[in-house]
Automatic annotation (TrEMBL):
This is Disintegrin domain-containing protein. It holds the Pfam family Dicty_CTDC. InterPro entries: ECM-enzyme_regulator, S_mold_repeat.
Length: 167
């Protein structure tokens, strides 16, 4: 019968290689390229099943960002808008809990000034009105204590009159 030439089986049972036979060098097992050119997948190869392309996890675990992936350039993290349009709060963000809206203090250490906060314009103040509508007192305001109403002295230094104040 003479010479026979049977093809060599170069299959290495690895789904991650491209198997071939080179007449000079014998079996060749070239690693296959699993790159799907999608930045939103993690490319790998399983020797039993072949190329794998599970999605990448773009979550940065911050409640202060919106996370997403674009095929061309991968993960993106954009800060969320925490502005509540309230001039009476300081807006911020906590990575664990998200947006915060801390009330601002309009306090002034002066009992003669009344402060308040308007959500549209913020802190405002106005003088405290100490008028007690009593003609027999002088009305004043002291920063430390607030309104003071002192009785006026009606003494005319005349022993022949009784001095009184009629409010």
């Amino acid at each position: 019968m003479g010479c026979t030439h049977t093809d060599v089986d170069c299959d290495d049972d690895d789904a991650c290689t491209d198997d071939s036979c080179d007449a000079k060098n014998g079996c060749q097992h070239e690693t296959i390229d699993c790159d799907d050119e999608n930045a939103c997948t993690e490319d790998s190869c399983d020797s039993e099943t072949g190329c794998l392309h599970p999605p990448v996890d773009c979550d940065d675990y911050s409640a202060c960002t919106k996370d997403w992936c674009e095929e061309k350039d991968g993960c993106h993290h954009e800060n969320i808008n925490c502005d509540d349009s309230d001039a009476c709060t300081a807006d911020g963000c906590n990575d664990d809990t998200g947006c915060t809206h801390t009330p601002i203090s309009c306090f002034i250490d002066n009992h003669c000034i009344a402060t308040s906060c308007d959500p549209e314009v913020g802190c405002g103040s106005e003088e405290v009105h100490c008028d007690d509508y009593d003609a027999c007192t002088t009305d004043d305001c002291e920063e430390d204590t607030g309104c003071v109403h002192e009785k006026i002295n009606c003494d005319d230094n005349d022993a022949c009159s009784t001095d009184d104040c009629d409010s």
